Fold each of these.
Amino acid sequence: MADLDDLRARFTRALDSARPGEGPDPTPYADNLLVRWQEPQRHYHTLSHLTAVLDRIDVLEEYADRPDLVRLAAWFHDAVYLPDRSENEERSARLAERALPEAGLPADGTAEVARLVRLTTTHDPADDDRDGQVLCDADLAILAAPPSAYAAYTAAVREEYGFVPSDAFREGRSAILRQLLELPRLFRTPYGEREWEATARYNLTSELEMLSL
């Protein structure tokens, strides 16, 4: 069960560190996002996922140029999530572009958060995009989970797409897995490549084989 007070505090720290001087109370912005992350259509993209991504950003912080902007991007990256829609990342980025200036974040910080959110559409950051690499690695780290946790992740994703017939889901999920496996590297930070790459590729390959049975 997610600790809502801890999450509010984490949002406040990230926003306060990223904006100059005093600004509006961060709590209403955190609460709006927390409500979004608890919507009933979510089974994987939940507060547990948000917490896990934030935890992994803490692990990868040394590789980021502006880690608090990466943390804010984590808060927004799935803030709009409807499984039957294809523009969730874009709508999440636009939400950040509306909310963060009002919350006191400067224009350049807001633009960077929105850019990072949009990057999670492809999870393919440039070689010199340190902040993008940290966010994408943190978001994809579930792919390197132990077998039981990976199985729970895939089951939760299937539940989110419960409206999709089995054959269509297998075809679509297989295409996503192949797209990921075709990336030269799933993880771009030194830590991610060292600690997560091999396990993630094993998990993805195993899932793809299961879907083809």
Note: The longest helix spans residues 166-182.
Amino acid sequence: MALIVESGELSLAQGERWWCARAGQALLWSTDLAVRMRVTQPTTTRHVLAPRAAFDDVGCRLVPGPPHVARLPGLQLLRSFLDTLAALPASSATDVEVAARNALLELMWGALRPDLPLDPRALGISRRAAVERFVDARLDDPGLGVEEVAAAHGLSTRSLARLFQESGDTFSGVLRAKRLARVREDLVTGALSLEALARRWGFVDASHLTRRFRGVYGLPPHEYRMRARATS
């Protein structure tokens, strides 16, 4: 939880210890730990609540601890970004929403926890995990490609490619492997034809699917299906 004090003053306590934040300051704390708040004068605040897992996704690892008081100038950047978001019309574009969320989380981290520098390696691992979750949820979208995925995570296509190159992979190779794994599941549990499976999982046609599937699993799809059913 981040609480930005726009005007006035408030105090927040955990246990016997108190922290005070005045206009132009902010408090960051984990909601895992109970807090008490005291306001003795008219005060205007702004709240930002985000799950810790979301910070993990962008490589900003938060550890439960006592509240942290943030001050300018980093806080001013966060406030300006929040003002910009509030002025934008509601959007149903998932890629825009994800990019804005990631930017907000990283800015919160930089403004509120400058004492905890980002670990570039951890950032890369977390971003790749977030990208893969995004891809897993959209594997049946035939138009899914590097441009859409990069935009959804606030990355250039080159930066996205580097996320996979660091482990010797490519984005297209990982996407294809994930789709082939779904084809394999459908061969065992379903009755769709190869043509239908190719359409469902983004392959050009049944021949293209057969070549790719044989290259990974050593058997053409129809033979894989027959053997799986014979042993079930």
Note: The beta strands are 2-7, 9-14, 17-22, 26-28, 36-38, 44-48, 68-70.
Amino acid sequence: MRRLRSRTAPASRSVTALTSRTATSAALAAALVLLAGCTNLEGLQSEGRARDVDAPLVLWPGYSPAPPSRNENPAVLVPVPGVPRIPGGSMAAAKPLAVLDADIAAQGRTPPAPSAVRPPALHDLTADGEPDLLMAVNLGPRTSELRVYAVRKTVVTRILVLRGVLAGVELAAGHLAVREPTKDPRYVSVTDYVWDGHEMDLWNLTLDDARTPQTPQAVGGSP
């Protein structure tokens, strides 16, 4: 009589083989997930752990400077003594050199030689429909001084004075932009001033690409 062979052992081997194949497939899938995490469709790869960023160390946190005094504020309004009033409100009616000399003399300084004064420029910075006066004095080979005058209630008034290395002075959209060189010759710092209804307010400080000087254009007014 033929004995029937037990099917238990082969069945056990089949389950073992299936389990082994399942584990292998799972390992391959996990490896693919890890690879997918290291790169995306763009081919970008992780560069490792990001560098720690330390907060700035504040020195003397309890100290704060006092606000600038009247003489330290470049935009303070200063009536120019000894200059005739201008009922019409236009700086085009004033004598530019006379205004400049009177303003500088009132500060106890000697007025500059006419050869050191750049041609005056007339432009409406105060948005009152009347031109204001811009004057620049060359104090040396590099340093210059910019002074801006407007008529306030018929009185000739200085509304801005700046001293520095003036790499350029520009007017755009009611803004007065002063360009000065930085330690990097590729860039200049740009300080924007705009009339806020009461004074020439410091509007913005930015960096801009340095560029070659522009060809000067004729402006109104004469010394």
Note: The chain has a mean pLDDT of 81.
Amino acid sequence: MLMLTDWGTSNFNEVHTYIIRSGVLQPIKFTDNKGKKISGAYWASRNNGIRSLSGSRVQFKYYNNMQFKYAVDTFKLNVSKLELRLSDTRYVDQSSWPNSGMGDRAYLESLKAAASKGMLPGRSDIKIGMTLKSVQSNLNKPKSRGNEEWGAFYYYSQFGLGFDSYMHELNAKSRIAILQLYNEKQNLAPQNVRLWLGKPSSEYYNEAAGGYEMTYRLGKHTLVFNYEEEDDLIDFTNIY
């Protein structure tokens, strides 16, 4: 595979990609995860902005001024279709290549699977409908507690649990009504959620909450992504 770079912007170069088949130099197009053409070129930082991975995959890295993060996009080569198809996305804080952690695709697939069952991702023992008594048996004391609009909340380091009663009404039989996840470390962008989960059931600006809500209905449960501005990263996610 041959890659030629050209000036793009102050942040990155445009990368034009080719392969040689039967002695003929042929251009490779870049497509999204569904095979729709994105461009005949892609973007990469001038220094250390491209690397190859196993499984005929190539990663491109560049600084995104809108998100103030480094975008790392992974493509998989399909020689017969002369395409590099998008297979994963990720935003990271550092300029070095990420060698650990989960990309958006796997993270969202895992989140959707857990949300469809009303479960806290990675904790099958914590789920919607569980009583406060069971929560206290399975978890340590919360970092803090308080009332929100619809009921009491227990706040832990990586998630929160919302109950069907306010603080003064809580008892052993009170039940979890909301699972809340804190997404800051995942650097999850709304456009990448749409990319990997498809069109949301609804998306709107919630004036009462002071931000946007993007909703996916998953059978008996609902997955809601919350962010303040259109171009912001997601602040937190609720499972109902």
Note: The CA atoms of residues 92 and 99 lie 11 Å apart.
